[in-house]
Amino acid sequence: MRSGTFVLGLALALALAVPAPALSTAGDAGAEPSVRVQEAEGALAGFPEHDEFIADTTEPQVKVLFSTGKDARDFKVLALTLEDSDEKITFSAKELYALDKLTPKRPLVVGLTSYGTIPHYGISYVDENGATRSFAVSESGEDGSLFLMEISTVP
Fold first, then answer.
1. Phi, psi of 125 (to 5 degrees)
2. What is the C-alpha separation between 125 and 134, in angstroms, rounded?
3. Can you tell me the mean pLDDT for 38-59?
4. How far apart, in whole angstroms, are the C-alpha atoms of residue 124 and residue 63?
5. What confidence tens digit (pLDDT) does each residue in 55-78 have?
6. 102 φ/ψ sector (left φ>0, alpha ψ -120 to 50, else beta)
7. Closest by alpha carbon to 26, among 151, 122, 155, 137?
8. How far apart are alpha carbons 81 and 153 in whole angstroms?
9. What distance in Å separates the CA atoms of residue 22 and residue 147, rounded to the nearest whole number?
């Protein structure tokens, strides 16, 4: 049984190590997200105003900046729990924080804890086509940069 856990961990690590094609079938799946994620330190200089939410105070905490070039309606920060990884990676999601919309002039800084290879945080928003898109906040295995990986969620 332990080797099954190792194989699952290895498969997730490989799937999450570098940006992958979108996994969701909703909306314009595979299209670049209109929301960007990056470490907040140094990135806030161009934004005189921003919202802030602390999702987790456990150390080591990192602050990430979610920004967009166009309004993202019904923007939510999510706590993710891995549910299935057999045919495609699926997460259950719990809403932690919500904005009516994330705007280009007012980004969101979120304090969270990053640990392990399985994402624990994500976002969702309604795109310009009216489709809800969900993404996990992931870290590149190549250079440690943050990226959004489209995911499927279950209630």
1. -160, 165
2. 7
3. 91
4. 18
5. 998 888 899 999 999 999 999 999
6. beta
7. 151
8. 9
9. 12
**Model confidence, pTM:** 0.79
pLDDT at 87: 79
Nearest CA to 149 out of 12, 51, 41, 56 is that of: 12
Q: What is the largest CA-CA distance in the chain?
A: 52
Q: How far apart are CA 138 and CA 13, in angstroms?
A: 10
Q: Which two tokens stand for residue 8?
A: 């699952």
Length of the chain: 155
Establish how many alpha carbons lie within 13 A of residue 3's alpha carbon, considering only the half-sphere containing its beta carbon: 0
pLDDT per residue over 3-16, tens digit each? 333 333 434 443 44
